[in-house]
Give the backbone structure.
Amino acid sequence: MTFTRGRALPSADRLRRDLGHLLLHLVLIAGAVSALFPFVWMVLNSLKGYTEAAAGLDILPKRWLFSNYVTAWNQVGLFPRYFANSIFIGVATVLGVLVTSTLAAYAFARMKFPGRDALFLIMVATMIVPFEVTLVPNFILMRDLNWIDTYQALIIPWSGSAFSVFLLRQFFRSIPQDLYDAAVLDGASHLRFLIDIVVPLSKPALITSALFTFLGSWNSLMWPLLVTNSPQMRPIQVGIASFITDAGTQVQLLLAAVTISVVPIVLVYLLLQRWFIEGIATVGLRG
């Protein structure tokens, strides 16, 4: 018999509690293993020879061919360019989304103007529109602007995000009104209050928005394939697709290229995971 908060806990209740905790941990472990397995499988097969990787029978490689990564990097002559394009496009898109979403979210959260709530509802409603529905109109707009095969077509259409506006608006609404009243007494404008007080307090939400935006930009395939013609303008996901040819696919090299493309995302998340988790938790709790 044990004691908790001054009361005895019967052995049966303690056993039931421990079994519940054990079951919960087993479910969590099973979920973690199922989520990690595709990545582990990808890395292990990227270290095999062609015959072994194509057969896919053995879990561990008979020979660990780390040279596959060098070969994959060099096989497609523009693979480093694809990599650099993805980094540039991703960073530029993140900056655009943070600027536009911060300004829009602050207006929806802290400023009063006619039709504010209706405009916000319309903007949120756009989140349910499938990407494929806007694909052709966006392409026609890029063509009319003569932006086909340019960085503008890869960055500017995605420099605004309804999801980021919604996320940041919910966070901005949680900032006490007393801070704004004190800033107004000191002569601060809305813009000064936003830059000096709101943005520093909203770092977790901003980083969360940045991570989602960078991930979406990094994984984009259909849009870059549609608006780019020259290989020099294409990002890494299109570059990975070039490993699949009519002559056949070197499976181990394709998986090595995919592994290389995943590394930046993993590193970014590991560096920013504390703010990411805090941003998700605080936005969910604050209204």
